[in-house]
Amino acid sequence: MSMFKSKLQKKSEIDYNKQFTIDQLLADPKMLQIHAERLKAVYKDATDDFIRTQIDQIILKENAFNKIMQYLTSNFSFQIDATELDEFKKRFKAQFNETDETKLTELAKKLIMKGLVFEQVIAQNKLSIDDAQVKTYLDNYYKTTNQPINEYLNNKEKFEEIRNIILEEKTTQWLIQKFKVWIDLKTLVRFDGSGNEDNNKA
């Protein structure tokens, strides 16, 4: 059963043998800053070089994933529920301190479409996360951050939230590994807050 009020309808079969080429990397400085802050929160003693290397990997991964998602969503038509769209927009407005309605709408639609496509991919390919994997994830989180995990172990709803987070990451990794993505890098495009582009030769 879908977690979403929005719906999708298949237009064509997904071709998992499809290949993609990335000739420029897109990077949003605001999102990179959020990633950097999260990394520093987890790896408290990390050097700037370590954080920079991790950010570089995130940029590559996100660009590859975005290329794949553009293709995957083209295989479906979507009916976005207005109430659900508003709920997502409110969440992102608070999370990212974003006030541009156009950007919020675009982001919300992308996340809803991604969620719907992921449900299809997960069901079609029988992807899953068992309880042991959730507990291992939480154990590793505790060892890395020294943050308590009992609230997740002893609360079924929160335990399932962690399962969904891991399953989403597993699905993302599965898709990146399933499709062939070639890097033929010519430019790095950074978007500032106004949407302008700053092109740097790689």
TrEMBL record:
Pfam families: Trigger_C. The keyword Cell inner membrane does not apply. The keyword Transmembrane helix does not apply. Residues 44-176 form the Trigger factor C-terminal domain. GO terms for biological process: protein folding; protein transport. Keywords: Isomerase, Rotamase. SUPFAM superfamilies: Triger factor/SurA peptide-binding domain-like. It comes from the Bacteria. GO terms for molecular function: peptidyl-prolyl cis-trans isomerase activity. InterPro entries: Trigger_fac_C (IPR008880), Trigger_fac_C_sf (IPR037041), Trigger_fact/SurA_dom_sf (IPR027304). This is Trigger factor C-terminal domain protein.
